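Onboarding guide, step 5: your first structure request.
Type a short instruction followed by the sequence, for example:

Predict the 3D structure of this protein.
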Amino acid sequence: MICPKWFVSLGGVVWISVNISCTTPDPPSELPFPERPPVSILVTPPQIEKVAPVQEADPRVQIVFDRLEAKTTEHITLYFAVQVDNPRSIPASIAIDQWQFIVNGVPRHTGGTLIFTEEDPAVGAVTSAQFLLGLGIDWSKCSDWGEADTYQTKLEADMVFIFALEEHTATHVSAEAVFPRIRAPKFTVTTIVVNQGELINTRLKVGLRIDNPNGFPLELSSLAYEFYGDERFWADGTDRAVRYIPAQSSIQAQILMVMNFIDMNRKLLEDILAARQVYYRFTGEAAVLTTIEYLPRFSVDFDLSGNSVVMK
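The system replies with structure tokens like these:
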């Protein structure tokens, strides 16, 4: 590069022309930026607070003795009223798992059958329901219960509630019941008296002792019967006299019968009138009333047979 000329005066007389050579340095080359180290960014997800699932309360159950029913002396049923409150938001079906019946302080495992009177019992969501449990007792299978006039009993059971997805919970329930043992009155033929009347009608009077083995009084409201002598039919009918039998006592009764021989063989009448002793069969059904509120009535079959003197 040639710079412009410069004139230099030396003492103001001589002028010297001077060529000044100058060079302009090349611009520095562009320096690269240093490499930056990689930057790591750590992203922490927000902390989400875990909320525990709400634990819903279990169903609540109340059970109380309701009543006792009996149609015969051999089969009775104890009914227990069940109140179920379901606070859960889903319905549940109900079943009985294990149970036992305690009789006069001793657990008994024979003679009883426990079932709901309603088929497939269930309770809806957040609601209540009522059911009946029936405990059927067959006295013919309860020989190990022992003889007693009154039975102090307690029913204990595990009631299972089955929810959706087979989730289930169980509740232990119990209820007490006190009831008398119901025994049939006992009948015994004591006398047979034949009174000849009209030609075709003969009166028969049968003496009957009626024993009440119960710890409470009974009333016999009717007695339907058939009477056979020496395996031949003699008479039938219904005696509607009301007879009161005190507790653990007996009474004497007379059953008046009319034998109608209009459609029978004449020889049968002659044999009856001539008889001194007869093999009898006295069978039928008696309607019995009690003074116990939850056991107002029952019926009892009887079938008696034996030898008896025939009095005239």
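Each response can be followed by summary notes, for example: The longest helix spans residues 266-274.
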